[in-house]
Amino acid sequence: MMTELVFEQEWSGNDADRERTTPKLPWQHPYKQGYCQVGNGRTAQPIHLYYELHGQGPNKVALIQGLNSPCQAWDYQTTFFAALDYTVLVFDARGVGWTGGSWDWYNTEEWARDFLELLDYVGWTEDVHALGQSAGGQVMLKALLLDKDPTKRFRSASLLNTTAGGTRPLAGAWTLATNLFVTPDQQIARLIRTSYTKAWLDAPSENDSSKTNFDLVRDRIMTRNARSRPQTPGAMLSQAIASLRHWVTAADLEKIKATDIPTLVVTNAWDNFVHTSHSYYLKEKLEPRKFVIFEDAGHIVPTEKYKELNNLLDIFWHEVYNESNPPNEQPASPL
């Protein structure tokens, strides 16, 4: 694995007395990598959270990945938005990729506190467009509740295929549980089959008609894994338990709605990890500015429908900007 050494700056602001490695990324756009120490006073030992910043635009976007997935699962989004007027923040959650941690009895509230501490570390205290996919959406909900001034911090909130809590489809839970007992190659294949629609997986890839989309996704996952670190069974279990324990009450959702932060809720018609009815529940309670259904997509919309999702987000964020900046009052800087 190709790595380069970087010096970490501790949460306290003092230079660390050790070196940490970061993966060598293949992108041509400007990007930064680093570590942020989180969990001081909340964990037995502080966690060194790995993060990436993509692009140099004035508009801040934070992406929160789902269960047991590295931040590089957002590749379709980071490469797209980094080429526009955005800077995109992604990170590995505890026990995933380059972030420390293994077995830890934590929950989505602690996960959200890690996220908020990272935002503070990079200086993103206002006007952040935040988006959470699946378990990342659960973390997004908690962050909106925990932040001292969410209306200042978050310019918008987007929730993709997520839940306020409750039961989950058996197929996804069974796949995650039994993947602990199969080979890494089998884990990848089983997760792909459970996460994407069969019709899409069997279709030829738009970039290489000699391969199917299944081949494309498998190859991308293997490439990402080659520049990441294997996840321990304890870390896998910790995140799964955190997601399953997650609960946001109707009263909490009312508090989020009362902030009037522009919200986007995205769902699909076929999902083995989150009941699509949970997105309809969020629609009912939050009354989002936009509610979008991808009828022919599985759980991983950021990959299966990346073009449509990227365009949707870009339009939504521009609409949010235009609402608060009428044409005759807009400043020189975009968004």
From TrEMBL:
Has the keyword Hydrolase been applied to this entry?
Answer: yes
Give UniProt keywords alphabetically. Hydrolase
Spell out the InterPro entries in the cross-references. AB_hydrolase, AB_hydrolase_1, AB_hydrolase_fold
Q: Which residues form the AB hydrolase-1 domain?
A: 73-303
Q: Name one GO molecular function term.
A: hydrolase activity
Q: Which PANTHER family match?
A: AB HYDROLASE-1 DOMAIN-CONTAINING PROTEIN, HYDROLASE, ALPHA/BETA FOLD FAMILY PROTEIN
| Name of the protein in its database record | Alpha/Beta hydrolase protein
Lineage of the native species?
Answer: Eukaryota, Fungi, Fungi incertae sedis, Mucoromycota, Mucoromycotina
